[in-house]
């Protein structure tokens, strides 16, 4: 079973406050959420839980991840922020995943999914990032994308062009994300963009917990 070696460790980062009258033990729910976010398909996660004597459906596990509403922790004060975007596909449509990462801790600070990429949407992403973290003195590391630079200028944030080095932190995370989900075939077929974004934010929370 792929990635099974990465499913050990604390699951305290998983908040199960959404649970009301759920018949599944919380420890099994936490394992199911962690397993799926870490890259196991829903079918493989079902098999993992069955091996522990817990019988739940693919939909139940999917719903756990969505209801947990996991997000990266707020309140960080990074010195540098790697800012980038990448194309993903949902139901054969193209979307843009924006991500900001701290290259020193390798943590994802914020992720968002947009139907396109523009300066205005980048400004929205930056405002959300500013609301979550202390980034006013941070230096943003960007590539040559003009809309990223323009949005940062408008926001009064410092940046520098950097095609290698620390900016590669977010690119490494993108590669890991795509590898882990087999180009999203396990997660982003027959779902709404909001569902995919929720999974991506859950992935960011899991990723930070393992670093």
Describe the model.
- The protein is α/β, with parallel strands linked by helices and 211 residues long.
- Helices cover 41% and strands 18% of the residues.
- It has a five-stranded mixed sheet, sandwiched between helices.
- Helix 1 crosses helix 3 and helix 4 crosses helix 5.
Widest beta sheet: strand line-up: 3-2-1-4-5
Uncertain parts: 1-5
Overall pLDDT metric: 85
Q: Work out the helicity level.
A: 40-55%
Beginning-to-end CA distance, first to last residue? 22 Å
Class from helix and strand fractions = alpha/beta
Name the overall outline: elongated
| Secondary structure tally: strands | 5
User: Major beta sheet, specifics?
Assistant: 5 strands, mixed
DSSP strand content: 15-25%
Q: Which H/E pattern describes the elements?
A: HHHEEEHEHEHH
- Radius of gyration, in angstroms, nearest whole number: 18 Å
Q: How large is the count of helical segments?
A: 7
Brief account:
The protein has seven helices and five strands, in the order H-H-H-E-E-E-H-E-H-E-H-H. It has 211 residues and is α/β, with parallel strands linked by helices.
Main attributes?
211 residues; 5 strands; disordered N terminus; single chain; five-stranded mixed beta sheet; alpha/beta; 7 helices
Secondary structure elements and pairings:
Blueprint: H1 26-37, H2 42-51, H3 58-68, E1 80-90, E2 93-102, E3 107-114, H4 119-132, E4 139-142, H5 146-155, E5 158-161, H6 168-180, H7 193-209
Parallel strand pairs: 1-4, 4-5
Antiparallel strand pairs: 1-2, 2-3
